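User:
I study polymers; will you set down one protein's sequence and backbone structure tokens?

Assistant:
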Amino acid sequence: MIHATIFAIIFTLYPFAIMRGLSPRVWAMSDYPPEITDHVPPQTDAEKRQARIVYILFLVIGIGYPLATTYFLKT
């Protein structure tokens, strides 16, 4: 039960930290309607790189943590 609680806390706080620390251009450009995104310049290479890192870490946390805790609980 402790592992699930830790996972829930991490999986909840990570997006909040990303939203607080990075520009919406990195994490939310696809969420805006076309009327808004048409007036915003495309993402820079640095923003694209940051977005990839954010997404990869989110996947690692979302998939890796449950797999790791399951493995460690089995051994």
Notes: The chain has one domain: 2-74. Helices lie at 2-21, 24-27, 34-37, 45-74. Residues 45-74 form the longest helix (30 residues). The radius of gyration is 16 Å.
